[in-house]
Amino acid sequence: MNKAIFKQSNGMYAVNIVSACGVFTPEQFAGLGQAALECSVFRLKLTTRQTVVAVLNEEDLAKLEARLSALGLSVSPYGGTVRAVKACAGNTALCQRALGDALDLGIVMQEKYLGRELNKDVKIAVAGCSRGCTDPLCADFGVIARGRDSFDVYIGGRGSTRKPLHGQLLAEDLTGDEVCKLFEHVIDKYSKLAQPKERLASTVARVGLGEFIPPQGMFAPKQEQSDNEFLAFISGKEEA
């Protein structure tokens, strides 16, 4: 796994810094600013992937990395890996339009999968409603909330290219746990079916979406889930 540290045209280096889907605590934000001062960072730049790029001289790289670790931050992985997850502010505490807790799910997925080694970079995007502020249809694995703990999943999207491509609907009305289970299924299939250095979008186009459809029985029938929720409610065990 490579680290996202790139030499710039001016001879300095850009370090791509990952937080929890773009969320910082005040202590982390203040600490990053202090670390930037101490490491003679030239500029800090927000990215479209909800990360922060620090531009600095080569001799200060190791010092900055050490400071990031102490703050609970890290350098983003890059090259044949699961990249930093994009998740909108979609949850009941932050966005009035949110249908489901996209931010919470995005953070969970990043904690579980960030840096997982794969055939090619895989990008995940999670949105709290169909407005899709995080461009889930242009991600390798795009998730869109449709209700409380209910998400639709699209795969094979591709952005940041001259030939952008929308993902295809793979599964509907999944819980957050089921989304993670489906992601495991998709990357397992991708690892087996992809040609060397082939992006997921190209693999889906070559072998067909059907190869990635989850097998019957992978997820519990929704009626069964509804019955369980009803039984929990009448027994007084439903969470507040």
UniProtKB/TrEMBL annotation:
Pfam families: NIR_SIR (PF01077), NIR_SIR_ferr (PF03460)
Segments crossing the lipid bilayer: none
InterPro entries: NasD-like, NiRdtase/SiRdtase_haem-b_fer, Nit/Sulf_reduc_fer-like_dom_sf, NO2/SO3_Rdtase_4Fe4S_dom, NO2/SO3_Rdtase_4Fe4S_sf
Superkingdom of origin: Bacteria
Residue stretches making up the Nitrite/sulphite reductase 4Fe-4S domain: 79-213
Keywords: Heme, Iron, Iron-sulfur, Metal-binding, Oxidoreductase
Domain (Nitrite/Sulfite reductase ferredoxin-like) ranges: 8-70
Gene Ontology molecular function: heme binding; iron-sulfur cluster binding; metal ion binding; oxidoreductase activity
PANTHER family (alphabetical): NITRITE REDUCTASE (NADH) LARGE SUBUNIT
Record-given protein name: NAD(P)H-nitrite reductase
